[in-house]
Design brief:
This protein is an alpha+beta fold. Helix content is 53%, strand content 11%.
């Protein structure tokens, strides 16, 4: 008899929603109260220091050492006023979560007392013992020197009693060891490349920011059940479990009423998020039972990424107050909707224009089309890189399964814009256009906002969809740090924008007028990138065939997909753009492969243990009962009756035996394969072995266990079942 599963179910029956202390003031009155934002800077900093931070944020200018002293002192006073006792550099190393090392403010003085101390050097540079963060060999381990340096574009904040200072993390020799450094480089590049194009349309544009609004999906599971599932605890997904008779077939969960305990959890998160200036705007149930989503109002990309990382941290902590565990894994349950993190991406100018939103005049619409078409072209040319940027061990289970777009990258823009682009492609020619032709083309371009207004079609099956005033990159997994896909997207689009500028300049040198040159280049791009556009059902079988015919790639294997970063074309592009050097790309490739290998390795070990220690003994116990029953029948029935009466039991006994043997054999084989893989010297060979040889064992072993779950007496089954995990809350 399994105690943990049943005592967990008992615990849950007694649970009540945890009372959350609501703030006594309106949200607007405490929003950002724990953030050292511009308003607080004005209060705590000298004018010189304030201006210097503002310039650093707006123009990326350097902060002088002397000013850093003043800023540090201002931040310190503010943080102490908020009750902080410690400070930490908060950064995003390549293992995917955030890192922090806390130091106390206090410092002993010569006369034996203590003072609160925090100088400019503590703000600008810190040297954590970084030997255990992944660096892909860039930083010699014995040196253990990584530097963290303040990123003024993301404001400092206080959590509990700790002042957190968002920082970049670089090696002694200047290579990026984190997610943030390349992201900032890519944003800088995007700014330059986009401003140059905006200048063709409007001389007032001097700054372009990338914007990001992420939609975070997640599952909640009661902590008692979580603790009764070692696979969830150790791998964040279920490695076994037969489908529940009812899960999401009735589609009765999406936007349904939010359960009370969950509501309390959401409220507490929102309060904490608002204090930290994270503008959470929406909350709702998602498609699967016990699956939810929240989304903020979009922000500048760097800040949005920090806020997402921060929120994931907070959610993880707060879930515990409510006896929940939050699952960010992309596919915690087989056969049920997975979790994504759709990234809504656009470009905003200092003049208040969204460059992916159609304007009111033909001129602003031509600018809109320029950014739209260049983005499509970038996705077309670099589809493999974009896929590589979103792939992970977890996301590989989600892509192409049930709800998520497949590993084929395509772009959806809707019927109206499709017509518009095809029009341009057919009407613009390299011959000089007549004035009439130009006027009519411009008139049509001028009509875009009207057609988009009633453009209600929304394709939820596309991995990269235009949704009226932004692109929604939907292939990103829920557990991801969005820096990597955002860095990649920013870089390929910037690279494309620079190409556009060159192409237009070349035509103009040959005497072609500005507008016509722009139209001609855009037409060329529309034609060249046509095959990436797809308006149909991205989940369908027919699309997979069609994509293959079009020559679009469809790489489902994780290590194979990563290789896109390693081509000469990609390395040349990244280093020409100064976003990632070859050394950094190589290091990142190794780190990602290693992470993948370790994840599959852990899953494989956990499943092996559970199969041998939990499942097989349970099945043998049940089988023994059946055998006893058969023996009893033999005693009480006649020879003729016995055969008939015991046939069901006999079949079951045999079935269990066959499956137990199969499981045992597969677990042993898998172990041998792991041993072989672990001896391999090259990281790529290891990852390939784990992906192509070991990973398939997981599914095969599970298929037997899931059948056994249906056969064995429910009261004996040791682990919470899908129906229990998905419907208790
Ligand atoms: P839906 O579920 O319909 O996709 P949501 O409200 O869940 O919509 O999320 C939409 C996200 O897109 C929000 O975070 C929103 O702020 C963001 N968004 C809206 N406009 C932009 C923009 N110009 N740039 C980036 N993100 C945007
Ligand atoms: Mg949404």
């Amino acid at each position: 008899m399994s105690h943990l599963r049943f005592s967990a179910l008992e615990d849950i029956r007694k649970r009540k929603a945890v009372e959350v202390q609501l703030p006594s003031v309106k949200t607007s009155e405490y929003f950002g109260s724990n953030v050292f934002d511009l308003k607080k800077m004005q209060e705590y900093l000298s004018e010189e220091a304030y201006e210097s931070v503002k310039q650093a944020v707006e123009r990326g200018s350097k902060i002088e050492r002397k000013v850093a002293e003043q800023i540090a002192s201002g931040i310190k006073s503010w943080a102490l006023d908020r009750g902080a006792t410690h400070y930490t550099h908060w950064f995003q190393p390549l293992h995917g979560t955030t890192a922090e090392k806390h130091d106390a403010f206090f410092q002993p003085t010569k006369d034996g007392g203590v003072i609160e101390n925090f100088g400019g050097d503590k703000l600008v540079q810190q040297e954590p013992d970084a030997s255990s963060f992944p660096s892909g060999g860039i930083r010699n381990t014995f040196e253990a020197r990584g530097y963290t340096a303040w990123d003024p574009s993301s404001p400092a904040f206080v959590i509990g009693t700790t002042l957190c200072i968002p920082t970049i993390f670089v090696s002694y020799t200047g290579e990026a060891l984190d997610y943030k450094t390349p992201l900032l480089r890519s944003l800088n590049l995007l700014d330059k490349a986009a401003v140059e194009i905006c200048q063709l349309f409007d001389r007032n544009v001097t700054k372009v920011n990338g914007t990001l609004g992420w939609e975070q999906e997640y599952f909640l599971v009661d902590e008692a059940l979580y603790h009764a599932r070692p696979d969830l605890m150790l791998t964040k997904r279920t490695l076994m479990g037969h489908a529940s008779a009812k899960d999401q077939q009735l589609a009765d969960n999406y936007f349904g009423s939010i359960p009370e305990r969950v509501m309390s959890f959401m409220k507490e998160i929102e309060i904490e998020a608002y204090k930290l200036g994270i503008p959470i705007k929406t909350r709702h149930n998602e498609v699967a039972p016990n699956q939810f989503e929240c989304a903020p109002v979009y922000e500048e990309i760097n800040l949005a990424v920090d806020h997402n990382q921060l929120l994931m941290d907070i959610m993880d902590k707060i879930a515990r107050h409510h006896n929940f565990r939050v699952l960010f894994h992309e596919k915690p349950y087989k056969g049920v909707n997975g979790s994504g993190k759709h990234c809504n991406w656009s470009l905003a100018t200092n003049t208040g224009v969204n460059l992916l939103s159609p304007g009111k005049t033909p001129k602003s619409n031509l600018q809109f089309l320029t950014f739209l078409i260049n983005t499509i072209k970038a996705v077309h040319d670099w589809q493999d890189l974009l896929r590589a940027s979103i792939m992970s061990s977890g996301n590989s289970h989600r892509l192409g399964a049930h709800e998520a777009p497949p590993a084929i990258i395509s772009v959806f823009i809707g019927e109206q814009l499709t017509k518009m682009l095809d029009e341009i492609a057919s009407r613009v020619s390299t011959k000089k256009m007549t004035p009439d032709e130009k006027t009519s083309l411009k008139l049509d371009v001028g009509k875009i906002p009207e057609i988009l207004l009633d453009n209600t079609d929304r394709n939820r099956t596309s991995p990269f969809a235009f949704t009226g005033n932004r692109f929604e990159f939907r292939a990103i997994g829920s557990s991801a740090n969005t820096s990597n896909p955002m860095t990649t997207l920013n870089t390929v689009v910037s690279n494309q924008l620079m190409e556009f500028t060159r192409d237009v300049k070349a035509l103009r040198k040959n005497g072609v007028k500005k507008d016509e040159a722009i139209f001609q280049v855009l037409k060329d791009y529309i034609v060249k990138s046509k095959k990436i556009r797809f308006e149909g059902d991205g989940y369908s079988e027919s699309w997979i065939k069609e994509a293959e015919k079009r020559g679009l790639s469809n790489i489902k294997d994780v290590p194979d997909s990563f290789s896109a970063f390693m081509t000469k074309k990609s390395k040349d592009m990244f280093s020409a753009c100064h976003v990632l050097s070859e050394v950094e790309i190589n290091a990142r490739f190794d780190i990602r492969l290693e992470r993948f290998t370790k994840k599959v390795q852990i899953e494989s070990r956990v499943l092996g243990d559970l199969a041998i220690n939990h499942i097989i003994p349970t099945c043998i116990n049940f089988q023994t009962k059946l055998i006893e029953n058969v023996n009893g029948l033999k005693e009480v029935s006649s020879k003729e009756d016995f055969k008939r009466l015991s046939s069901l039991q006999m079949d079951t006994i045999l079935d269990i035996s066959e499956r137990i043997n199969a499981v045992k054999k597969l677990v042993n084989e898998m172990k041998e394969e792991r041993k072989k893989a672990n001896k391999m010297e090259k990281i790529l060979d290891q990852a390939n072995a784990y992906s192509k040889i070991i990973k398939p064992y997981l599914l095969e072993i599970r298929s037997h266990i899931d059948r056994l779950e249906l056969i064995v007496d429910d009261r004996m089954w040791p682990m919470p079942k899908y129906r229990e995990l998905l419907f208790n809350r």
